[in-house]
Amino acid sequence: MKSLSLAALLLCSHAALADWQLDQSASSLSFLSTKNNLVTETHHFTAFTGTLAEDGSLNINIELNSVETNIPIRNERMREHMFKLFPNATLTAQVPKTVMDLDVGESMALEIKGQLELNTKSQILSIPLQVTRLANEQLLATTTQPILLNTVQFGLTDGVKKLQELAGLASIDQTVPVTFNVIFSVAN
Hints:
Helix content: 10-25%
Largest sheet: 8 strands, antiparallel, barrel
Order of helices and strands: HEEEEEEHEHEEEEHE
């Protein structure tokens, strides 16, 4: 019986002390755009990676050129006029130890501060989350409210204006709501 308890303790401590990898195939990162003040559409990125270190250091890299709007010409235009010079965005944050110590089946609502670097600009964001330990070696983090990004603060105004001109639109909203649903698994 003691050896079984010791084995269980070692397995639990392995998960608590290991680095975690974002499972992109089970995760999503989406954003909304609104044109002409009337039409809102959902888009997403198909390529992003991330790690969560045992000390709670979070690092997410988003390949902006993986944008998927479900309209090929719009994808091309966004890549060319928004993301060509700076094709990656990086989010870093510190996740509290209480999250890392969640038991299987346990959830926690919290808000963390994250630094988003995009287009040579950097902003501190408030990120409202619900984190759940799905299994001993798996965490789920979901936004509980959209994160509002302002394209002006990231120096993307010219790109937005060019997209507006190419599409013949009266306006494209400068505020972009972003949501995510990500799963981290213990790296082997």
